[in-house]
């Protein structure tokens, strides 16, 4: 069978994955702290034919680390990170990192994420506040004060660039390399009364979707032309009656 048919099929597989990724990004454009999915494609070179043939890989997803917009909420339990760091919470299988700082406090004083997971301090321990005292004051370094007493500190972690991130829920990620506690708060810190939104650019994503759809249709046309050419060859070279 013609190589162009296989090449076009590999392109369609890659573009289908890209379309699914874009659709998921658009669906989460209003999810707090959401990080968009991107896809990395590689060229696969086949040496089976007389001439080298290049195919597109199916693509590998990775989580974008671009920051999202910071919005003022004036909620004392909302905190947004300035810089590239992450919060952490205790997931079912260990620490999960997130940029979504819309926290809440339950009746026992436990500091929780919006999904109800315990927020962790720098040592990886859950944070407990006093529910009978007024709203906490949260410093740039994550220190939590209630009145004149320090009751805890929100952990702030850096994730290495070479760590592999996999998704957990809507806005959480698990890292192949544990996060490193932030020590320098000159360029990194938290803002109380603010929250970070999704880093998805809906206009850009829709533009990408249109371009990918056009390329998908173009690949489909190539497949149809290849099949037509093959059938013509069979009819021409086949035995005559």
From TrEMBL:
<feature type="domain" description="Flagellar basal body rod protein N-terminal">
    <location>
        <begin position="5"/>
        <end position="35"/>
    </location>
</feature>
<dbReference type="InterPro" id="IPR001444">
    <property type="entry name" value="Flag_bb_rod_N"/>
</dbReference>
<feature type="domain" description="Flagellar hook protein FlgE/F/G-like D1">
    <location>
        <begin position="80"/>
        <end position="145"/>
    </location>
</feature>
<keyword id="KW-0969">Cilium</keyword>
<dbReference type="Pfam" id="PF22692">
    <property type="entry name" value="LlgE_F_G_D1"/>
</dbReference>
<keyword id="KW-0282">Flagellum</keyword>
<dbReference type="InterPro" id="IPR053967">
    <property type="entry name" value="LlgE_F_G-like_D1"/>
</dbReference>
<dbReference type="Pfam" id="PF06429">
    <property type="entry name" value="Flg_bbr_C"/>
</dbReference>
<keyword id="KW-0966">Cell projection</keyword>
<comment type="subunit">
    <text>The basal body constitutes a major portion of the flagellar organelle and consists of five rings (E,L,P,S, and M) mounted on a central rod. The rod consists of about 26 subunits of FlgG in the distal portion, and FlgB, FlgC and FlgF are thought to build up the proximal portion of the rod with about 6 subunits each.</text>
</comment>
<dbReference type="InterPro" id="IPR012836">
    <property type="entry name" value="FlgF"/>
</dbReference>
<dbReference type="InterPro" id="IPR010930">
    <property type="entry name" value="Flg_bb/hook_C_dom"/>
</dbReference>
<dbReference type="Pfam" id="PF00460">
    <property type="entry name" value="Flg_bb_rod"/>
</dbReference>
<feature type="domain" description="Flagellar basal-body/hook protein C-terminal">
    <location>
        <begin position="191"/>
        <end position="235"/>
    </location>
</feature>
<comment type="similarity">
    <text>Belongs to the flagella basal body rod proteins family.</text>
</comment>
<dbReference type="InterPro" id="IPR020013">
    <property type="entry name" value="Flagellar_FlgE/F/G"/>
</dbReference>
<dbReference type="InterPro" id="IPR037925">
    <property type="entry name" value="FlgE/F/G-like"/>
</dbReference>
<dbReference type="InterPro" id="IPR019776">
    <property type="entry name" value="Flagellar_basal_body_rod_CS"/>
</dbReference>
<keyword id="KW-0975">Bacterial flagellum</keyword>
<dbReference type="GO" id="GO:0030694">
    <property type="term" value="C:bacterial-type flagellum basal body, rod"/>
</dbReference>
<protein>
    <recommendedName>
        <fullName>Flagellar basal-body rod protein FlgF</fullName>
    </recommendedName>
</protein>
<dbReference type="GO" id="GO:0071978">
    <property type="term" value="P:bacterial-type flagellum-dependent swarming motility"/>
</dbReference>
